[in-house]
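Possible regression after last week's pipeline update?

I re-ran a chain I had predicted before the update to compare outputs. Posting the input and the new output here so someone can diff against the archived version. Not blocking, just want to make sure nothing changed silently.
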Amino acid sequence: MAVKREHDIQYFSSLLSILSLPFYDVAALTKLELINRSKFEGATLFARKLKINLRIGWKDELYKPQFPIYQQIKYTLDPSTNTAKCKLVYRPVKVMDEIPQMPMKQNFLENMVLWCYDSDAHEAVIVFKDDQENFRMLDPMWIINMSASDINKLFHHDIFYEDKDTYQAL
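New output (post-update):
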């Protein structure tokens, strides 16, 4: 499971580990469209359940995201109220330590026509001749697992993108 951000990707070992994110982050994720490339029905149901729980106020304990814990700062008092100062503390998010590398087919770009940046899904798309299915690259790190000839082929073809996506595409 992956959550794609503007500048990085967070990988989670399971759907429920997404709930280790702070509540405001999970609430923001529920407002976004789910891109489910694997067609895994559980991911669609999970996203729907999160939207329902956000609406009812996170009542279901199983689908409750992380909320902050108030922690007193030792030896500090607020002079105006004479009460102890507190800070909000979040537990660390349960993301995967290592980026999972997708096993790539080797030398599969012989029939490549072009590659372009899809600004809706924020992915690079490789388009092939004939009726071969397009290849979508979620994470640019996947290029590491490609063969040298495939990397060369990508290098010699310019990536197509819209003017507004210049920064992201390059």
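Follow-up from reviewer: compared with the archived run. The longest helix spans residues 41-56. Marking as no regression found.
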